[in-house]
Every structure is written in structure tokens, then in C-alpha cells.
Amino acid sequence: MAIYTIRTTTAGAAAPKTHITSTAPANARVKLRGLLLGNTAATATQGVEWEILRLSVNATGSAQTPNPLNPDDIASRTTATSTITAEGTSSTILVEFGFDVLTTYPLWFPGSPVDLAPQYVNSGILALRKTIGADTTNWAITWFFEE
Questions:
Q1: What is the CATH number of the domain that holds 35?
Q2: I want to staple 135 with a disulfide (CB 3.0 to 4.6 A). Which of 12, 45, 91, 96 is the partner?
Q3: How far apart are alpha carbons 112 and 138 in whole angstroms?
Q4: 72-84 burial string, b = 16+ CB within 10 Å, else e?
């Protein structure tokens, strides 16, 4: 299995706001291994809440090209979207977390002894959505997944 990243910097907005989506290829299982979230322009304390969720209908936005961490790995078959212009349809919330915008937030899903990674399969869609917070500054996001 190969590890890939999707990176984006997107403008904040009043919640709810999806910032990134990732769609598994047909007949394949993809695992979210982690993500890094940081605000690049916040100057005052503010709490934000985020969720990782499955979508039944994908959001509309700009296509992102996943990059392999190992340059010898093949190109990813998983597709990704950021700079969302139309929200997708929420299906199932898997993880919720909150933090202060003045910090960088790392979230990792280890593979052993129990694999806790959110998974999406067979053209399923996983998304990162901000659910609380009205910031209008920029978010830098790196999404790590295993294909």
C-alpha cells in the first residue's frame, strides 16, 4: 500500500464549510491515515470544530492531484476536491474534533494493534468539514491517505 497526500490552502468561511473531499476509486479501499490543519492568518483566539464525514453526493470544487510520499509509487487513483463552491450531501459523521485557530492540529489514525482509520470504498466519498467557527482567514490542510 502506498501513502499519498492532498494539500490545499482554502479561505475560511462561516460554518458549515467543507474544505476537502476525497473519492475512492471503484472496487478499492482507501484509508485516511491522518491530517494536519493550521490557520495561516489568525491573530485572535477562536474555537473551531471540524468533522470527518462520509458524503452521499460529492461537493463541487477544484480538482486536486494526490501526490505519493514515495516517488517510486504509482499515481493515485483516488480523486480529490478542494476550494468548495457547493456543499455535498452529508451521510455519516465519523469523527468530530475542536481546537483553537492559533494552533496547528495534527490528527493521526494508527494502523495497529487496531486499525482506527476511517475508510471509504468503491467510489465512496470522505470529507473534512468545519462545523463551528466564523473565521475568514486561510486554512492550510494536508490529508494523508493509504491506497
A1: 2.60.120
A2: 12
A3: 34
A4: eeeebebbbbbbb
What 8-state DSSP symbol labels residue 14? Answer: S
55 and 21 in contact (C-beta within 8 Å)?
Answer: yes
Q: Radius of gyration of the chain from Cα atoms?
A: 15
The letter for the amino acid at 94 is L
Position 135 scores a pLDDT of: 78
Q: How many domains does the chain have?
A: 1
- The confidence band for 13, taking pLDDT boundaries of 50, 70 and 90, is confident
- Cβ–Cβ contacts within 10 Å for residue 119, how many? 17
Question: ∠66-67-68 over CA atoms, to 5°?
Answer: 125
pLDDT digits (tens, 9 = 90+) for 36-93: 999 988 888 989 999 999 999 999 999 999 999 999 999 999 999 999 999 999 989 9
Beta bridge partners of 132: 49
Residue with cell 458549515: 16
The single-letter code of the amino acid at 115 is D
**Residues making up the chain, counted from first to last:** 147
